[in-house]
Amino acid sequence: MKKSKILFALVIGLAMFSCSDDDDNSMVETQAITEEEAVEIVEKSLAEESAGLEETTYEYAKTYGEEISLNVQCNQPVTDSYMYSYNGTLVQASYDFNWDFTITCNALNVPQSATFNSSGSGTYTTPRIESDDSSTFMATVTGLQPTSSVLTYNATFERVGTQQLTTNQTTRTVTSDFDATLVDLVVGKSDYEVDSGTGTFTLTGSTNQGNFSYNGSIVFNGNQTATLTINGNQYTIDLN
């Protein structure tokens, strides 16, 4: 009888171990793209040459300095559009952008800030990615007054699309959604480049192998670079 009890206890113990092992395995999440592949998609969502975030902040700062500030329309909605085309050695891109913005002035009609919205759609190609996507950028821009040497953007940015991602001579179709919240993104009025700022982001999507979801933080370093942190791992990316 004692042997039977011991055997019964052993069976229960093995069953519990098996269930625990299954539970542990079920908690291991398999991502449909690697972290390094996610970083590459995020980089191109932000970079200027691939018509990412940096192109939008650059173009508005440049247009404001060279055109808008010369004929300010206080508290009046303004719309504009432009085409972006880039044909480099490693990156080719073609996008259409639409803007709307309203400038807020003080009692003396001196510009103070603006609400700025941009939407774009198009394609870009790199050695590893072919992308067809669209983006939206919604920002409050401060520092418009002539005494300020910088513009500061507090904004949200989203880029949604489909990529043909080639790694190890294998091409996969990826659908992706990049969402970022940007805090105090400082852009110089002389060179129109991002000098500093921070942000948080999510990158979600799917392939025929399943889903993926990454989140992390961004620190804009100046000098056309940014540092991404994902799962405690840091990556320096090129914003050109």
Automatic annotation (TrEMBL):
Record's signal peptide: 1-20
This protein's UniProt keywords: Signal
Superkingdom per UniProt: Bacteria
Protein name: Lipocalin-like domain-containing protein
Species, as recorded: Cyclobacterium xiamenense
